[in-house]
Amino acid sequence: MHWLAWLAIVDGCLAVCAQFSRKVGYYRRLLRFGVCALFASIVTLLTLPALWAVGKRASGNWVAGRAFYYSTLVLLGISVEIEGEELLDQACPCVLVGNHQTMFDLIMLGRVFPKQTVILAKRSVSHYPFVGWFMRLSDDIFISRGNKQSSSDMFKKASEELKSKNVSVWFFPEGT
C-alpha cells in the first residue's frame, strides 16, 4: 500500500482516539506538523534547481516558508494575518531579527518570509535531513554556538551576503 494511504489510516485512527484523549489529539497535530515540514522541504528541494538557474538561490527559503504555511493552513487549519507585509519587500535587502521559541513561530515565518533572504542558523541544523539539505542549498549561513570567532565570522559573512548578492539575512538570537 502507498505510504500516503498508511499515513491517512494512521491519521484517521488518531482522529478517532483523539475524541477520548487530548494527548492523542496533540500527537495527531504533531504528526501533521511533521508532514507539513517534510512536504515543504521536498517541494523546496525540487524547486531549487530552477531557482539556481535564474540566480535566485536564496529564494529557496521563501519557497519552503510558503509551502509550509499553506500546508499547515490545510492540514492544521492555522492561518496568520500579517499587517504591513508590503513593507518587508520595500525594505530589502536588510537584516531581520525574529523570535523563535515555539513551533508556531515557524508557521508565522512561513507566511511572512521575504524572497531572496538567507537564514543564519546554528550549525547542527545543517545536518538535519531534508530541512538541513535545502537550507545548505539555499546559501544559508551556519555558525557554531559559543564560538566567538564563529560569531564574528558570521557577521562578516552576513554583511558580505547583503552587499554582494543583494539578499537579506534573517536570524533568531534566541535560537541561534
Could you describe the 3D structure shown?
It is a single chain. The protein has 176 residues and is α/β, with parallel strands linked by helices. Helices cover 60% and strands 9% of the residues. It has helices at 3-18, 22-53, 60-76, 86-91, 103-112, 131-137, 148-165; strands at residues 95-97, 117-122, 141-143, 168-171. The protein has a four-stranded parallel beta sheet with strand order 1-4-2-3, with helices on one face. The protein is elongated, with a radius of gyration of 18 Å. The termini are far apart. 26% of the residues are buried.
Mean pLDDT: 84
Our measurement of the CA-to-CA distance between the termini, rounded to an integer number of angstroms, reads 41 Å
Strand segment tally: 4
Main sheet overview: 4 strands, parallel
Order of helices and strands: HHHHEHEHEHE
Oligomer: single chain
Shape: elongated
Unreliable runs, pLDDT <50, ≥5 residues? none
Structural class: alpha/beta
Work out the strand percent. Answer: 5-15%
Level of helix content?
55-70%
- Strand line-up of the largest beta sheet: 1-4-2-3
Count of discrete alpha- or pi-helical segments spanning 4 or more residues: 7
- Based on CA atoms alone, the radius of gyration comes out at 18 Å
Keywords:
single chain; 176 residues; 9% strand
In short, what is this structure?
This protein is α/β, with parallel strands linked by helices. The chain is built from 7 helices and 4 strands.
